[in-house]
Design brief:
The chain has helices at about 15-30, 65-75, 125-130, 140, 160-170, 185-195, 290-310, and strands spanning about 5-15, 35, 50, 60, 80, 85-90, 95-100, 105-115, 115-120, 135, 150-155, 175, 200, 205-210, 220-225, 230, 235-240, 245, 275-280. With about 325 residues, the chain is an alpha/beta fold.
């Protein structure tokens, strides 16, 4: 078991764009932040390849490299960056208690939660193997790489419908693979999809396998009604079946929506617990971009700094 609890002024949980940006701002404000990287150091960007839509990288950059840059900047200002992940919390007392790796207790005057969200996957071996090589969970991030190509997207909700219409503007053709005989998306979004000439919706259909050696070159689809299997020749495969916010350990402490996204006071990163702030994709089911996550990371650090100043904690 661990030694005595450790006391910190600003604790940051998570290490994607939100966590690292919060660390940069908190460190420069002399909050001496301690950041735990979590189970996926660098967050979702470490499983993407090229990032072309983050300002300041005119030639684009690789996702993992970008997170190394963020990390180096946070360290440069004195952030204490550690391996380890939060296993439980107790927000009933002040300072707030967070336990890491089930053994080490940290007492924090302020906590910035930047644990992100994880894309849901279909669970196919070929999907994981080709992830980043034609398989993507973000059309807005990666659609541009498939300009004038034929692509497929799986999903039936608003996000899938929105991403399908986004891809239709860039791609020659979009196959939308829907498991049931109807979409879950709102009527307005369904109309938009069905009235887009280059989107073909395949109802009652299931993805059996993504084909390709080094990159995607097709997808096997099975129709549950006709029992027919067909191969679509596509260069890209997008998964839009939702995200899971990494917020389970905060259940019962923080207000969340029905999916598990942490609710914040509009226009801020404040949660319902004093001194606890949420930034990035764990609190954002709308935009889910690196640049918006970084923006809320900055907000969280400023909110934490102002909270500490108001409390007279130096």
């Amino acid at each position: 078991m661990s030694q005595e609890p450790e006391k910190v002024k600003c604790l940051i949980i998570g290490s994607g764009p939100a966590g690292y940006t919060a660390a940069i701002y908190a460190a420069r404000a002399d909050l001496k932040p301690v950041l735990y990287q979590g189970l996926q150091p660098g967050g979702q960007l470490t499983i993407t390849t090229e990032v072309e839509n983050y300002p300041g990288y005119p030639k684009g950059t690789m996702g993992p490299q970008m997170m190394e840059d963020f990390k180096a900047q946070a360290e440069r200002f004195g952030t204490d960056i550690r391996f380890g992940y939060a296993t439980s919390v107790d927000f009933s007392t002040q300072p707030r208690t967070v336990i890491f790796d089930e053994t080490h207790t940290v007492l924090a005057d302020t906590v910035i939660i930047a644990t992100g969200a994880s894309a849901k996957w279909l669970g196919l071996e070929s999907e994981q193997r080709l992830n980043g090589f034609g398989v993507s969970a973000c059309a807005v991030c990666d659609g541009f790489f498939f300009k004038n190509q034929v692509v497929a997207i799986v999903g039936a909700g608003d996000t899938a419908a929105e991403e399908a219409t986004y891809l239709a503007k860039l791609c020659k053709k979009v196959f939308m693979i829907v498991r049931r005989d109807e979409m879950r998306a709102s009527k307005a979004m369904q109309h938009r999809v069905l009235n887009t000439a280059n989107i073909e919706v395949l109802f009652n259909s299931e993805t059996k396998e993504i084909l390709g050696g080094k990159t995607v070159d097709g997808v096997k689809v099975f129709n549950n009604k006709t029992k027919e299997e067909r191969t679509l020749e596509v260069g890209g495969f997008f998964v839009a079946i939702g995200h899971d916010p990494n917020s389970k350990i905060f259940n019962g402490w923080l207000d969340m929506d029905e999916v598990g996204y942490i609710k914040t006071v509009p226009g801020s990163t404040r949660t319902n617990v004093e001194g606890v702030f949420a930034a990035g994709d764990v609190a954002d089911h709308v935009y889910r971009q690196a640049v918006t996550a970084a923006g809320t990371g900055c907000m969280a650090a400023i909110d934490a700094e102002r909270y500490l100043a108001a409390k007279g904690i130096h």
